[in-house]
Amino acid sequence: MATLIRVLGDFDLAEEAVQEAFAVALERWPRDGIPDNPGAWITTTARNRAIDRLRRERRLAEKTETLRRLAALEALGDPVNESAIQDDRLRLIFTCCHPALAVDAQVALTLRTLGGLTTPEIARAFLVPEPTMAQRLVRAKRKIRDAHIPYRVPPDHVLPERLQTVLAVLYLVFNEGYSASAGDALIRRELCAEAIRLGRVLALLMPDEPEALGLLALMLLQDSRRDTRVSAGGELVLLEDQDRGRWDREEIDEGAEIVERAVRGGRPGPYQVQAAIAALHATAERPRDTDWGQIAMLYGRLAELQPTPVVELNRAVAVAMAEGPERGIRLMEPLARPLDRYHLFHSARADLLRRLGRNAESADAYRRALGFASNDVERRFLERRLAEVTGGEA
Known about the structure:
Helix content is 69%, strand content 0%. The chain has helices at residues 2-8, 11-32, 38-60, 64-74, 82-96, 103-113, 119-125, 130-146, 159-178, 189-205, 210-223, 249-263, 270-282, 292-305, 309-323, 325-332, 343-355, 359-372, 376-390. It starts with a helix and ends with a helix.
């Protein structure tokens, strides 16, 4: 599909041609056997179907654009070279994540075109009506077509900033799966899986980009704890209380190896630093073995690369674990205004106050967190903690 989109400049026509090719395969392969190169067979058959459709359009009206597309398809060649397909997939990733598109459209189009999710699946994942998501996809495709957004990997001088957009979109997809922003489930496994799969594609296509490796490592290391983050009863389980024997050791080993390979490149970036932090958590056999001093230092480095209030909040929590709750509380004070509507700021502050025995202040912070939390699993956890510090009173 990536190859046909490049040639046709039309997402819908390319998708229809590929669907027709799969229909032909379902009819012929059981009878004739699977071809030696199924991917090339599908692409060639889809190309031929697109040629047939455009020839029909040409007979109806001699359109200049139809003739251009037809000539490009006929020049595509047969069979399709695998390296050319990889190049087209890389171009498609950057096209879906073009900064001219709104971020929500980038995410939706990436999942639809590269992830293979259906429109209803994407709509359910992001808690919007199916017609809303369908319109979002239509508008994104139309903008790419009408604005003549180039179907290419950006030139070298703008590649770093454009790659950051692509990485950010993939991480948005992963985070929505790892900690859903709303709804009755904390984890949406299909989104995590799609983000990791697309991260693997990007790392394979751009093996010399350490931040692409860093993001893949980060997602693998975080995903390794997925099955222990919610109890059998559907309740949130904090990192320190999780059963580490159930963590996915294969993902941890792979993630740790990838982040080591990334940092050897000598070009540190935010995703590599976050992956290094995740690796320290994942490789600690017991909660008390966690090297909080090293984690706090890494968050300090991350704050230099990515100076945001959320990073500073995470650094404050790490410092609190390394040096004591009072130190963490002091570091959080300047964050009260920028993070006032961020429920995790209030819940983190509430926890440190609880550890210090300042229950009345802790209760106020938990109530503040509840005012902004929208995920049901997180809300139940906050309500339990509030009951603990108030003796069961609201």
